[in-house]
Amino acid sequence: MSKHPRLFGNDYSLLKIITDESVILNWQQQYQKELLEKNYPKDWADIGIVLEDPYNLILRDLVKFPDGILRGYTRAVMKASLNGGTGVVILSEFQGKLLLLHQYRHPTRQWHYQVLLGYGEPSIPAIENAHKEVEEETGGKVSELVSLGEFYANPGYESASVALFYAKLASIGTANVNEGIESFVWLTVKELEEWIANEKITDGFTIAAYTKAKLKGLI
To answer: What pTM value is reported for the model?
Structure first.
């Protein structure tokens, strides 16, 4: 809390984070009893950092809701975002066609058609990260990069935003299979819209990047 006070601010908030340790301890003791009576794990009452790995923090805060009820509320924090790192989403065009990746994603255990995505890295600006991701995932180079703004994919759970970009590529290489990318797909704007409408594209980042680029008149 002392290192990252922004994450715990209560100004203008309907959902107040409780930081009084005595209140937290009392709530935990009561809730643990309820959990044990129902044969649920008592660590569901843990407050604070409940999981940490090199990339993510999962926090469970004790939150006071407008009706006065106290409940644990879980959120995910991308660790890189705490040190200036920003994830990036890049809708790319090369020789008049838009690039999609046919990529296998571990969390869904499914294949997806989607634009380029890059995890944030500490202290690397979003623009630099976007160039790096294009090169790493496609072996290509960017000739023009336009910011499409900020995007929160899941504000009910994830604390960090990503930066959306539209890129014109100067070159393209081969798909990086180590990123789960099987192949490239090249679409016209009309084809991309049809794939979104027909649910062949279900990735939210791709839909967001397309929407912003379309509304800004870039495609």
So the answer is: 0.93
